[in-house]
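Supplementary Methods. Inverse-folding protocol.

Structures were first reduced to a discrete structure-token string of length 617. This string, shown here, constituted the complete conditioning input.
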């Protein structure tokens, strides 16, 4: 009812304003129309094009004004078509001779009230602070990432994640997975490990008696080490005003007394405390974890049999005093927040994880597993003109407007065949070896599945994606999603790198100075950070899948996915080198992913697409 009343009021106000404008003999820009966002940016909702036809806004499209007879060319490839008119512009226009103009906006602040030609700047969502002014066309605003982004939501207080569990229960592995995910999402994360601190201060190789609860000196030293690591942790949390910092306190924390002390300290430091307890009673998993533990600095110089015996005694010492996390640990004022993982995701229990970051961590952990598998990454079969053969370097950017609907050349089609053959061979080898992607305990045991059923193929939704996957569809399950489409250029959509450099040199320079955070101006324009947010569901799917996965996409999206899997820093992500007609084989493991590149270009030489140029990077 309230919504209907609002629409009726807005419609009445619009009609009155249009009538007043007609009486005044002028056409005012209406900023009160319902639908705001893109409609505010136009003189009217049904303005005529240069050819006299009318366009209308589709309720299902943010990018496109559809013609009355539909959208034969595709929504994304026609973003802003009809909004910008090709003009020469007065003296070449602003910003280095731009050849496009935007409709005047009511907030133009030219001192002489003149209406120069410039590209539209990104629209401001309600409640977000205006972007800083500066620079010349296109736009007079900075297109960086604003403060108050999703990565600060729910972090009114610094967050401390404290691990709980017996040794060799995968606590450090869980921490590293969460750090990789949150760091990729834009958070500042740091690990504070008590065991590493012990080794740094000269107690490397301490035997099992050091952990005996009857060893008063050992108990005192362990408490002092825990306090020292907490001091370092809180110093790091408070030394910056950043709202994106998350600290991880990695220790056993097996007693209620220790956890109570952590909770008291967290309240004193005005931080939010989340416990994550890892419980494991699966013999096979424990065996694998024990073998990994014997590789650390405490045991690497010991006889393997003696090391195993000493570590088993250490576990027994902790088991005697171990107390699982209970709801009764509440102090009546601050409710206990925790996540319990049983057998690495086989079962999950959460309590009071309603905050944004705790809920994100909980959701992420519900999808991770340790089942062996492979993740394959490949670019679409596109050539990059202007650079060395088979590389992703060049002087021009791929024209997204035409390239996404381009057809593959014979060389591109040849790579499509080679890719399918490679995947069949790789899956057959894995199934025969009973390795990654094969059947195992996590799949309920039983006979091995069909070797072709072990690969899931994910790709973007454009024509080049479909043609690259043409032969794979005959053998494997293939799914397309626009989440894997290439970066969008906003107002600069379809321009090559050289065109941007010549016509809009300041935009070119802005992007060179901060490539990860730079967002292309205009509606639909994206940055690398925007792509990270967009492909987050794909990352969750990669973690959830027990079978091997092949992802086929364009360069910017491929870089973001690879950066997550390999733990690449955000500032290095836009510069990751990839080659066309190559498959990158990633193998997740306890210490991160390993990557091997397979060159298939000997069967697919030359250009991969009829489109000129290379992809938008």
């Amino acid at each position: 009812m309230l919504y209907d009343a609002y629409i009726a009021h807005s419609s009445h106000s619009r009609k009155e304003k249009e009538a007043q404008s007609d009486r005044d003999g002028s056409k005012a820009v209406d900023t009160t129309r319902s639908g705001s966002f893109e409609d505010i940016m136009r003189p009217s909702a049904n303005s005529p094009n240069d050819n006299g036809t009318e366009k209308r806004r589709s309720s299902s499209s943010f990018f496109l004004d559809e013609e009355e007879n539909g959208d034969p060319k595709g929504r994304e490839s026609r973003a802003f078509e009809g909004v910008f008119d090709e003009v020469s512009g007065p003296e070449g226009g602003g910003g280095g001779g731009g050849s496009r103009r935007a409709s005047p906006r009511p907030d133009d602040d030219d001192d002489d009230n003149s209406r120069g030609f410039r590209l539209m700047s990104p629209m401001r969502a309600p409640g977000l602070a205006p972007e800083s002014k500066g620079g010349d066309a296109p736009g007079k605003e900075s297109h960086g990432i604003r403060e108050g982004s999703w990565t600060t939501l729910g972090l009114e207080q610094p967050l401390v994640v404290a691990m709980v569990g017996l040794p060799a229960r995968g606590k450090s592995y869980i921490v590293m997975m969460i750090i990789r995910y949150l760091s990729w999402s834009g958070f500042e994360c740091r690990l504070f490990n008590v065991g590493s601190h012990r080794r740094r201060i000269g107690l490397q190789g301490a035997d099992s008696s050091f952990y005996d609860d009857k060893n008063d000196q050992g108990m005192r030293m362990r408490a002092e080490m825990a306090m020292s690591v907490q001091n370092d942790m809180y110093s790091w949390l408070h030394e910056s005003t950043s709202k994106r910092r998350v600290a991880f306190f990695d220790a056993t924390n097996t007693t209620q007394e220790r956890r109570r002390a952590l909770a008291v300290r967290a309240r004193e430091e005005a931080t939010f405390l989340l416990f994550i307890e890892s419980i494991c009673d699966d013999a096979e998993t424990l065996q694998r974890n024990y073998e990994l533990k014997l590789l650390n600095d405490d045991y690497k110089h010991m006889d393997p049999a003696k090391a195993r015996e000493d570590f088993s005694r250490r576990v027994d010492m902790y088991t005697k005093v171990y107390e699982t996390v209970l709801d009764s640990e509440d102090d009546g004022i601050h409710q206990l927040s925790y996540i319990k993982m049983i057998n690495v995701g086989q079962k999950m229990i959460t309590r009071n994880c309603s905050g944004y970051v705790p809920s994100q961590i909980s959701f992420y952990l519900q999808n991770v597993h340790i089942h062996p598998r492979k993740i394959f990454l490949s670019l679409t079969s596109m050539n990059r003109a202007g650079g060395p053969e088979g590389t992703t370097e060049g002087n021009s950017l791929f024209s997204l407007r035409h390239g996404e609907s381009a057809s593959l050349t014979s060389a591109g089609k040849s790579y499509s065949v080679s890719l399918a053959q490679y995947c069949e061979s790789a899956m057959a080898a894995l199934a025969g070896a009973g390795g990654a992607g094969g059947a195992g305990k996590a799949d309920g045991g039983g006979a091995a599945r069909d070797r072709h059923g072990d690969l899931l193929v994910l790709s973007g939704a454009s024509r080049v994606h479909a043609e690259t996957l043409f032969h794979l569809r005959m053998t494997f399950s293939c799914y397309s999603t626009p989440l894997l489409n290439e970066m969008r250029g906003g107002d600069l959509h379809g321009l090559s790198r050289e065109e941007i450099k010549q016509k809009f040199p300041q935009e070119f320079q802005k992007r060179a100075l901060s490539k990860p955070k730079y967002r292309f101006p205009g509606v639909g324009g994206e940055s690398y950070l925007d792509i990270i947010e967009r492909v987050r569901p794909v990352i969750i799917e990669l973690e959830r899948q027990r079978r091997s996965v092949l992802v086929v996409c364009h360069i910017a999206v491929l870089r973001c996915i690879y950066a997550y899997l390999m733990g690449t820093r955000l500032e290095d992500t836009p510069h990751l080198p990839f080659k066309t007609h190559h498959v990158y084989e990633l193998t997740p493991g306890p210490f991160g992913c390993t990557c091997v590149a397979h060159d298939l270009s000997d069967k697919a030489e030359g250009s991969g697409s009829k489109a000129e140029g290379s992809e938008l990077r």
